[in-house]
Specification:
By secondary structure, the protein is mainly β. Helices cover 7% and strands 42% of the residues.
Length: 313
């Protein structure tokens, strides 16, 4: 779990002694308040905090926490979503500014591109590995036909628009999240249609999976979406308060978590966005418990060994 400096730094002997004498733990405390989004690369975990109006960074290799996005004139106002390209550039979707702000890995502002007036309600941003295609998810208006995915170039020039409102392949109803695999495959969480749709790097529809329901492989209130380097897809659901793991064929592999009001590991009450990095880590946010949990994908050998131990062999 990542909440504060105590999760990534071992206390010194002096700090341990002070805690024993005073009962005060200097390392305790949360670094963020409302984790609206999470993304990670090269050991740095970026958390968008809509209450602090900042990006909080857990720099795990260096055992430190820092923030960015507060320096005028390039401060963030309501950071709703994060994405990171293969070069480590951080893309922040700001719903109040209706813009995408781009920073380097240490928080230096590089550029901003303003979204056009026909972007109604932007809710998520995704980027391909090369940084040449930036996707903005527009959940659209309540009754309009404007539920779509906008594709931008690295300079902020709009390249194309994917979809319209509907239930057919390539159409959307309340799209909430998107992510891009290293091969360029775009995955979109089409929440109102209770499905995930996959597109190639040219925007051509590949396949879809999912349906409404309460059983394994179904969706009820899907909220977050992530894809890892192997192509596994992770979908969080605020109704089930778990996340389900699928392969790209849409086959359910497992479900993790459940509804609990204690907030322990794997216990959730209001699941939100997800993320995955190149190191095999999967991140899940819980807005009720104000936490980011971290999972590590097991290798095939580790998985086989775990199955063997559970079978007593």
């Amino acid at each position: 779990m990542l909440q504060g400096i105590s999760d990534i730094r071992v206390p010194t002997e002096e700090q341990r002694l002070k805690q024993r004498l005073t009962g005060v733990d200097e390392l305790k405390g949360k670094a963020y308040h409302t984790p609206s989004a999470v993304a990670s690369r090269a050991g740095r975990v970026y958390v968008a905090d809509t209450l602090q109006n900042a990006i909080v960074v857990f720099d795990i290799p260096r055992r430190r926490i820092f923030t960015f996005g507060r320096r005028e004139p390039n401060s963030v106002q309501r950071p709703q979503s994060l994405a990171i390209d293969g070069g480590g550039l951080v893309y922040v979707l700001d719903t109040l500014l209706k813009s995408v702000l781009v920073f380097d890995s240490l928080g230096l502002h590089l550029k901003t591109f303003k979204l056009e007036d026909d972007v109604v309600k932007p809710v998520d941003v995704a980027v391909n590995k090369e940084g040449t295609q930036v996707y903005v998810v527009d959940r659209g208006s309540l009754r309009g036909d404007d539920h779509k995915i906008l594709v931008y170039g690295a300079d902020g020039t709009r390249l194309s628009i994917l979809g319209s409102r509907g239930r057919e392949p390539g159409q959307f109803d309340i799209p909430l999240a998107a992510c891009v695999h290293t091969d360029g495959t775009l995955a979109v969480l089409d929440a109102g249609n209770f499905r995930v749709q996959l597109f190639d790097q040219n925007g051509e529809f590949i396949r879809e999976f999912g349906s409404a329901g309460t059983g394994p492989g179904n969706f009820s209130r899907p909220r977050g979406l992530a894809i890892d380097e192997t192509g596994l897809l992770y979908v969080s659901d605020a109704k089930f308060n778990n996340f389900q793991v699928f392969n790209q064929e849409g086959e359910l592999l497992m479900a993790i978590g459940g509804m609990k009001l204690r907030g322990g590991p794997g216990e959730y009450a209001l699941l939100g966005r997800m993320g995955a990095d190149e190191l095999g880590h999967v991140f899940v946010t819980d807005l009720f418990f104000r936490k980011v949990e971290v999972y590590r994908r097991l290798s095939d050998e580790e998985g086989q060994a775990l199955v063997a131990r559970s079978n007593g062999t």
